[in-house]
Amino acid sequence: xxxxxxxxxxxxxxxxxxxxxxxxxxxxxxxxxxxxxxxxxxxxxxxxxxxxxxxxxxxxxxxxxxxxxxxxxxxxxxxxxxxxxxxxxxxxxxxxxxxxxxxxxxxxxxxxxxxxxxxxxxxxxxxxxxxx
Length: 132
Known about the structure:
By secondary structure, the protein is an all-alpha fold. The protein has helices spanning 3-25, 33-54, 59-80, 84-99, 113-129. The chain has one domain (3-129).
């Protein structure tokens, strides 16, 4: 599979899983959706900590931990005060994903992951954001 075809496949899988994640949230009472979105923001931010810890040296781990703390902070603020912060956090995380292309921040991130995750983040941001 060519690089461009593989990239599109990663994006389409991210879109599908983002939509599936939102569809799953719809199975719960509407009052739970902000909490579910906040949990997703925190979880999505924490995934990169594993990549940082798998990298050689402490710099990637520190960078990824700082990113995860920022996502956790936005998740808590979004749940407790302004749900739009959750949508903004998902969009910011998509930018964080794209900054990881080519191992620029954390070399342990698989090549396919940033495209996949950015697509899922943007779909989740759009679908959850439409309900705020």
